[in-house]
Amino acid sequence: HMPKHKLPPIDACDLHKDETLKYYCKNDNQLACSTCVTISHRRCDGICQVSDVSSDVRNSKQYKNMMQKITLLEQQSDENLQLQAINVLANETSKSNLKSRIREYRKEINEFLDGLEHNADKDVDEMSAKDKQAMCDVSDE
């Protein structure tokens, strides 16, 4: 199973990172932490706790649909991570195979060139021997 990325807590206040969003302002339709309520919403009369407002949310059809979508997205994400790992492994295997084939071709080419060199050396030695013999024959005459 692939490790999941750690997401920041969804109930953390954007302005006050160490505070939790525990309140809801009906006037501004906004979540707030205790510091935000004290500073920015002190004149609002529609402040209530999130737990009071959201008590029936978990039983709502919208919430259940959203949770199904989230579960599906998590599954798809896990599948994508597994496919990525498989692709990385296949890439490494392919790279290794290509390097091995290159070494084999290099060996075959070197053997072919060694054979050509050997034949050329042999031909040069034979030509040199014939030339020496021809010079000896000329000097003997």
Walk me through the structure.
This protein starts with 22 loop residues before the first strand and ends with a helix. The chain has helices at residues 34-40, 50-53, 61-140; strands spanning 23-25, 30-32, 47-49. A 3-stranded antiparallel β-sheet has the order 2-1-3. The chain is rod-shaped, with a radius of gyration of 41 Å. Strand 1 and strand 2 (30-32) form a beta hairpin. With 141 residues, the chain is mainly alpha-helical.
Compute the average pLDDT.
88
Could you spell the SSE succession in H and E letters?
Answer: EEHEHH
Cα-atom radius of gyration: 41 Å
Strand order of the largest sheet: 2-1-3
**Uncertain spans, ≥5 residues at pLDDT below 50?**
none
Give the strand content.
5-15%
**Helicity, in percent?**
55-70%
**Number of DSSP helices?**
3
Shape from CA axes? rod-shaped
| Total count of strands | 3
Blueprint of the fold:
Elements: E1 23-25, E2 30-32, H1 34-40, E3 47-49, H2 50-53, H3 61-140
Antiparallel strand pairs: 1-2, 1-3
Descriptive terms for the model:
single chain, 141 residues, mainly alpha
Provide a quick synopsis of the model.
The chain has helices at residues 34-40, 50-53, 61-140, and strands at residues 23-25, 30-32, 47-49.
